[in-house]
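Raw record, unedited: EAL domain-containing protein
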Amino acid sequence: MKFIADFESNHKCRIIIKSIITMCHDLGYRVVAEGVETKEEFEFLRESQCDFIQGFYFYKPMSQADFEDSLDASL
């Protein structure tokens, strides 16, 4: 289920997300959030201590060649 899609308009979704992150940490797991598309989603997850955050907010899907070019450009 994708709670992050509704987190801005639904306070209950934010509570569920924070609770899931806390529960996972209490059990010794790290948390990966997928599908992050906006700065607001990223900031919320970061403030909620999500361990790993990925999604279109950072990069759109790309071919291996484009990825390698992007990686070379950053070095």
